[in-house]
Amino acid sequence: MKISKWLSILLVLTLLLCLLPAAALADPANSKEDEEQAETADETEPPVAEDEELPAEEDADAPAAEEDEDKDAPLVNEADQVCYPLEGETVYNNGGTVYNNGALVYNNGGIVYANSGTVYNNGGIVYANGGVVYNNGGTVYRNSATVYTFADDVQQSRVYGAFHVATAEDYSAIAEIEGLDENDMLLEGQCCTIRVPEGLILRSVEADAGTLTENEDGSWTLEALDADATLTLEVQAEAPVFDLAEGCYAEAQTLTITGPEGAALYYTLDGSAPDEESLLYEEPIQLTEGCTVRAAALFPGAEPSEITEAAYAFVTITAPEIPDGTQGEEPPEAVAFTVENPGKTPAVIESVSLSGKSASYFSLSTEEGATLKAGKSDSKTWTLQPAADLTRGNYKAIVVFTLAGGQTVQLEVRYKVK
Fold first, then answer.
1. Distance between CA 50 and CA 69 in Å, rounded?
2. pTM of this prediction exceeds 0.70
């Protein structure tokens, strides 16, 4: 019985000794986990001394300020990049592609599509759609843009869709071409109008490119250009204008000649063709005897005008005296009017007629006109005779000679019956 009791006690002690190592191993594990949690807490919530202030929260706009500083700096666009700068920005394009919408671009060999921006082009390619391009030897495809070139002139620079229009040197100072830009370029698909100042005439226009059409007002239209064009113009001054109608006159006349502004007017009085050696018109001409006046306008750089010509004759007409008659007797024979033409050109009498209250008591040999050669006189063609069976009294009539040009010569004739 006593032995069994001691065996039971020994078994209990053995069990306790087996349990003690397991408990000892469990405590270190829990301690390590607690240390890791403590370290994590130290990182997220560091201890703060009572007299130490917490740091202020960071301003959300602070990064934006840095971005604004970067935005003010020029953009650099490299060869493999594409850039879309806006108004106010500056781009240094080193071989890349820039779609410029109002920015300032310095193009060093790249491609720039300039939509209203300014481009300094140093050898690159610029598609300028309304922008301003300072081109130092590059290629510019200009669509209404302004190009300042420093290596080649605009005509030699390649300008997409626009062609240069020049005029032959003889008429370059005369022609006025509307529809070209300040560099005499014409955009593809558009037309220009060629005209000359008032007082000049475009006789003909030729172009080595495009299509020409003459307009009703004397101008010409050039369109459908596919290359640079040179215009060859035939420009002529308009003919002078005389204010005195050609014809026959009975007294001295004043002739005024007008011509294109800027033209010199030359004239002759002997019927010869005028040139620079002829009389220079400077003031109205006093015509006192028959002559043929010829005048031409000479405008610098243009062909001389057509010659304006007018013949003037000055005649002297003398009324005859009719001897008195006696009532109941036959009237006197017809008497003739004497017409003299001392000039060097023919004198034309359009017609002769009678007027006045006593006109019916006279009769004319003819009312038709006639031509009197230069230096000749006539005393047979037009005669006047009183009527028969007139009662005693004084009779008077007016004989009207109408001259070429409309002027009239009126002569009074009297007849007395005793």
1. 39
2. no
